Each structure stands twice: as structure tokens, then as C-alpha cells.
Structure prediction request, 158 residues.
Amino acid sequence: MGDRMYGDAFLKEILTRTKVVAVVGLSMNPVRPSYYVARYLALKGYTVIPVNPGHAGKVLFGQEVRASLTECPETVDMVDIFRRSEHVEPIVAEALGALPNLRTVWMQIGVVNHDAERLAQARGVDVVMHRCPKIEYQRLFGELRMGGFNTGVISSKL
Prediction:
């Protein structure tokens, strides 16, 4: 599953340039990974647009929950997908059609879809699969180091 290697510079560049993240499959339940990953990203200054048709119209992290990516603002530059792998390709196709500023498709840990990856890359969109932006942010920007983890990143920051 985790057969793709992404360089630290590639991941850091994505996390640095990204401003608005549509999180597909975001749960309203605070113990679900989709909730706490989205909350973390919002706390780090990203605008998080929740996407979940079952909760459309509710408000989460100061944003209205959208039923689909077609309802998201055009400013979305990354889509973070919390859906099973077999559901990803139509999500990516919808994102490519609805989000003119899309630069990154990010599939969460356990989510891999090579057809969706090829579809996005053919349009010049970066793809990350089987990774979590929260974990990568913490690793690459020094937050895991404070917990005693060897992140592989050399820095003078404590």
C-alpha cells in the first residue's frame, strides 16, 4: 500500500503553498481522524472547507459543510480525501472539474487509487497517497521532534 516515496521537499512545498483545503468525508465526530486532522489544519492557519453530504449546511471550523466539491469556493487548492480507495476516482474527477485552483490531491493513510492519481497528474495536479497532512506537517515543521521522535529533519529548533 505505501509503495510511493515522497521526498520531504515535495511534501513541505505542498504544505507551505496550500491555503484552502476541502476535506472530503469529514466527520462531525471529534474522535474520528477526519475531524481531528481537519481541526489541526484549521488551527495551523489553513482554511478548511468540510465536504460531507450527510452534514451539509451545518458549520464546522467556521465554515459551512458542503454537500459536494462543486459547492466549494474556487479558492480550494488542495483536496484531502477521507474515503475508501474505490470511491476516490469520481471525487478526483469532480475536483478537477469544479476547482480551477486545485494544485494537490491528498489521499489519507490507507487510501490509494492509481487511476485517480493518473487522472490528476495528467492535469498537472500533484498527488499524495497513503499519507496524512497532519503527520507530515508535524514531522516536517518540527512538532514531532518536541515529543522525542526522530523525524529525519535536521534543525536547530527545539
Summary: The first helix runs from residue 8 to 17.
